[in-house]
Write a structure and sequence with these properties.
Nucleotidyltransferase, domain 5, six-stranded antiparallel β-sheet
């Protein structure tokens, strides 16, 4: 089964793309994703905005390529006659793509639905399963670079001073797409810096609480991919699909509500809970300093792991579940390693 999800440039997606992405492009016998076939595959792996590896192959589709297609991509039937058949070509491609077929490394393409539809149909026809998460540089260019004459890849590249040494061939088109995406990432980051969000509403202490929670989870081997934060008038929450850690912010101090047997084992001040906090079973644990959270490391990691397992079950069983989670996360705060270190440095 093949699943494909288009993503926007939210904080979480930006964080992933800044580390790694695969720029992808195909040349085909025509425009019909069901009838036509891919005749060339191109993929370029980018790490921190730099091309580090590439993959290219012609593909013998077992049918003639029409003259109209050859006129665009200059791929002839003679060239395809000696090219590998689909089974061989896609075996090599999937080895190159690696965890991108599990949705972990993101794809980018220009007018990406076209490329992802053709790729998905080919993989499905050959018996593969995959989750393809991607961003579309065409749509992103329209949003982030207004005023261009058109938004063909060559036009966008020219506006950025990017030169395509061999247009309408899969690998060079993919390479240019990857360069365009990196420029769009920088534009989007600057745009986000000027848009007020949840982060400016937090004071320095609250930022430090967020950073401590992230540091505890990461230092115990957890991944922060799905970790976000929310703040209401009186509550700061760490979220993994659902809140798993809440810090109440009151005039009397900062506190968390824990089961009484857990709270009594900590070397921290405690107090009685309100009726709404289930005072018969729980206690308030007061935090005098963000680093007090280190004493709650086991509780935080256990709660995070349970929430993460629930999230993964939700994504695996609910149609469109991943997109719903990502949409919710886009309205929450995701902090980077640099932000974490910066906020902890002032403690």
């Amino acid at each position: 089964m093949i699943k494909a999800y288009k993503l926007g440039l939210d904080r979480m997606t930006l964080h992933a793309l800044e580390e790694c992405y695969i720029a992808f492009d195909v040349e085909t016998t025509g425009l019909d994703r069901y009838f036509d076939r891919i005749v060339e595959l191109g993929a370029v792996r980018y790490e921190k905005g730099v091309a580090v590896a590439s993959f290219n192959t012609l593909v013998n589709p077992g049918r003639f390529i029409p003259y109209e297609a050859t006129a665009v991509n200059h791929i002839t039937n003679a060239m395809l006659a000696t090219a590998p058949r689909e089974q061989e070509a896609y075996a090599e491609l999937t080895a190159f793509l690696g965890d991108a077929l599990e949705g972990k490394t993101l794809f980018c393409a220009h007018n990406a639905k076209f490329d992802m539809d053709f790729l998905g149909n080919a993989l499905d026809r050959l018996g593969y399963s995959a989750e393809l998460n991607y961003v579309d540089t065409l749509g992103l260019s329209r949003k982030l670079i207004p005023g261009l004459m058109d938004y063909r890849q060559d036009t966008v590249a020219h506006s950025m001073g990017i030169y395509n040494r061999q247009a309408h061939r899969a690998t060079t088109d993919a390479e240019v797409c990857g360069q365009i995406l990196w420029r769009l990432i920088q534009i989007r980051k600057k745009e986000m810096e000027t848009v007020p969000g949840e982060l400016p509403e937090m004071n320095q202490e609250e930022k430090a609480f967020c950073a401590m929670i992230r540091q505890i989870i990461v230092s115990h081997g957890g991944a922060d991919t799905w970790l976000t934060y929310k703040k209401s008038a009186s509550t700061l929450q760490a979220v993994c699909h659902h809140p798993f850690m809440s810090i109440k912010c009151t005039r009397k101090g900062r506190y968390v509500v824990l089961p009484a047997e857990t709270a009594e084992c900590l070397c921290l001040p405690t107090g009685a809970c309100s009726a709404g906090e289930d005072k018969e079973k729980n206690l308030r644990v007061y935090l005098e300093h963000p680093r007090d959270l280190e004493l709650l490391s086991d509780y935080i990691c256990t709660a995070f792991t349970a929430s993460l397992e629930e999230l993964q079950k939700y994504i695996g069983t609910v149609e469109g579940g991943k997109m719903r989670v990502l949409a919710a996360m886009d309205k929450q705060l995701h902090i980077t390693e640099d932000e974490m270190e910066s906020w902890l440095r002032v403690l």
